[in-house]
Here is the input.
Amino acid sequence: MKQQPCYILAIESSCDDTAAAILRNDEVLSNIIATQDVHKQYGGVVPELASRAHQQNIIPVVDQALKEAGVSKSELSAIAYTRGPGLLGSLLVGTSFAKSMSMGLDIPLIDVNHMQAHLLAHFIKDEHPTPTFPFLGVTVSGGHTQLVLVKDYFEFELIGTTLDDAIGEAFDKCGKILGLGYPAGPIIDKLAKTGNSKAFSFPVPKVPGLNLSYSGFKTNVINFIHKNMQKDAGFIDANLNDLCASIQYTLIEIIFQKIEKAVDQYQVSKVVLGGGVSANSGLRSKLETTAVQKGWNVYLPPFAYTTDNAAMIGIVGYLKHQKEDFGSLKEAASARLKF
Ligand code: KG4
Ligand code: ZN
Here is the structure.
């Protein structure tokens, strides 16, 4: 007997993107994201404004996802939503919406861990290769920087993490001091392409084991810029591309040294990247070059699934649906949700 397709509506609202997607099994039919421009003027996400914008965006975004996929509400098999980690006020909007819809349609609710989703996005069916287990997962985003040993779909072991700032946060804060817009990560990436990464040198902090740190580096950059601007008010303008290239080089070096160490320590040769910073061209090319030199298999996500999106929540929803691993209406959103 032919199996009925499984249609998942996925909702993501953990930070400042309101997103909804429809999946038919492991295939993405629509993937809609409303980015909240309101935060640009503040140079970072303002949690209260993020929750309000989610409230405004969620219904039109879900509506568009259904329309674009050509799927009606009555065809949905389950609702998957981001339970955490993230900003609590933002998570509450998606969680309440998902619960209400699952109750109204009388279909299962599936809770999803946002950090697992960044890595499991690689199991979305498209032309990209899919990793096999075990692999080293590297999640690099605005809120997290983690090294994870992934032994199976839902067997995640955290083996290293930042002790302070996340890599994306460091990109954004360095960009802010350079007078770039928010988020600065993609702008630094673009400007770095025509800069000299050896023009300025910043030390890589020494942190034991597989943990890492970005806050000392960020302070070094801020002090360095202040000192040079006092001597020459045109310093940033005259050196912008070289500054971006040198900053990006060190930000990548900090995580890259830990990736190499984790590969050696855990004897895994598959490295799977996820999170907003996995869009960075410098990090991608460094990993691709190393893969050739050292015989690693590196999996880089398609650009649509790097920054926050609901398709990645949907694939986890589908994988959990297959196991009938459903959530409950009583489950609360959790800002610090662990694996
Ligand atoms: O995963 P994400 O969308 O949200 C969080 O869960 O945090 O990641 C957003 C982060 C921001 O810090 C942004 O500056 C960074 O990803 N980012 C980049 C690039 N594209 C996005 N950083 C460096 N280079 C990029 N091309
Ligand atoms: Zn994220």
Observations:
- Residues 114, 118, 141, 275, 308 surround zinc ion (ligand 2) (CB under 6 Å).
- Strands lie at 7-12, 17-24, 27-35, 78-84, 109-113, 135-140, 145-152, 155-161, 270-274, 297-299.
- The first helix runs from residue 47 to 69.
- The mean pLDDT is 96.
